[in-house]
Amino acid sequence: MIRVAINGFGRIGRAILRLGLSDPDLRFVAINDPVPSDNLAYLLKHDSVHGCWAGDVRSTRDSIEVGSERIHVSGRKNPVLLPWRKLGVAVVIESSGRFRSMRAASLHRVAGARRVVMTAVPSGGCDSDVPLLIPGVNDHSYTGEAVVSAASCSANAAGAVTKLVHEHLGIRAGFLTAVHAYTRDQQLLDGGHARDWRRGRAAALNMFPSASDAAMVVASLIPGMRNRLDGMTLRVPVPDGSLMRMIFRLERPVEQEAVHELISEEIVERLAGIVSIATDPLTSKDVVNDTHSIVIDPRGTLADSGFFLALTGWYDHEWGYAARVLDLVKTIA
């Protein structure tokens, strides 16, 4: 059983715990977050997007108890002071967003953890010394590194499908557009924002374009794809349920039905649990709590036996990403 700690118990941290508690291979032993344990227990139990936790959730001054599981809670700012060695932590999930370099994330190892999974693209991007791993893309290339990054939710959404298209049809160039639900980085009401003034506008009332590193990350992880992808994000006023539009200029022509057959074959052979294909016409609400990285919507596919291909897929940018982080925990442990 893998002993896991979570540093940063926000949206992703709580999604990871909710999903991971049912995995018999994992044992969550600690959470580190500045929010008091009783408030963390409340947020774990009551989630406005993913619903109320069905089980019993209690708290003490230094723990959260979920059913029969007792999880130690601390609120230290310096990772070196965390009790990872005492608790026998094998993997720390670094989901605070504050420790995004190799040096910073490695402080968890100083505290006694053996491995660290970062739930963000590292601060150096694709040129960072932190390896980026995406299940279904390059997780098979893991060679024992102590600190890794799970990239981003949108990179995971686009990654596996982009790789299979490139391997079978060849991609000359592509553009990824993530139509993304709002996140904690946006304001509830109009206010200031240090990096992006438009993210300071009321999240539930506005849509706007924003920069995205998903295309750059995906291209860097697929052999022969570097500098062939670009992309952007459209932030839209829904709390969860996002959409990825992938447009590719191909090296070999393809028909629409052949694309769906290719994806279906890849799901059976190596992408089960990562990619799926929808049978019904979906909306954003339908993929909330879906654990796939992406759900391809056949109604959004455009291919006319020519060299252009457009694919559309839905993804829960919290739940699907949390599931891939847990996959990586088991890969590196």
Which CATH first-tier class of the largest domain would you pick? Alpha Beta
Q: What is the overall silhouette?
A: globular
Poorly predicted regions: none
- Please state the second-level CATH architecture of the largest domain: 2-Layer Sandwich
Count every beta strand, where a strand is a DSSP E run of 2 or more residues.
17
Number of helices: 9
Q: How many structural domains?
A: 2
- The CATH homologous superfamily of the largest domain is termed Dihydrodipicolinate Reductase, domain 2
Strand proportion, as a percent range, falls in 25-35%
Query: What Rg is obtained from the alpha carbons, in whole angstroms?
Result: 20 Å
Report helical residue fraction.
25-40%
Which strand order spans the largest sheet, edge to edge or round the barrel? 5-6-7-2-1-8-9-10
Major β-sheet profile: 8 strands, mixed
Order of helices and strands: EHEHEEEEEHEHHEEHEEHEEHEEEH
Mean pLDDT: 96
Measured distance between first and last alpha carbons: 10 Å
Structural class: alpha/beta
CATH topology of the largest domain: Dihydrodipicolinate Reductase, domain 2
